[in-house]
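Report of the visiting student (M.T.), summer placement. My assignment was to run the structure pipeline on a short list of targets and document each run. The first record concerns HIT domain-containing protein.
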Amino acid sequence: MSEPSIFTRILQGEIPAEIVAETENAFAIRDIAPQAPVHLLVIPKTQQYRNVVELAAGDPDLLTEVIGLANSVAAEHSDGDFRLIFNTGEGAGQTVFHVHAHVLSGGLNEKSLGG
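After the run finished, the structure tokens were exported:
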């Protein structure tokens, strides 16, 4: 069995983090290195899926729940407009291989996509 991910360890209370919202199967925390005025992570409670492609194939209902929670935290912590990002693979910037969504908001524009 693989080691618990940092997100599993947060959920288990081993690592401190501010959980800003939670559903039966997912939770949301503040990113420790924010890339926008509002930068939250929405994470399934299971670490069964490494990335969003695996999650979509394996449990589309859980993916729907993650997106719904992202929408809720964006409405609560910003004006409801948000960018939702899933990094899939090391080459795309994924560093924790426990699927999670980045919710970014606050003064973003199309040119803030990087590059």
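The chain has a mean pLDDT of 94. DSSP finds three helices and five strands in the chain. I thank the supervising group for their guidance throughout the placement.
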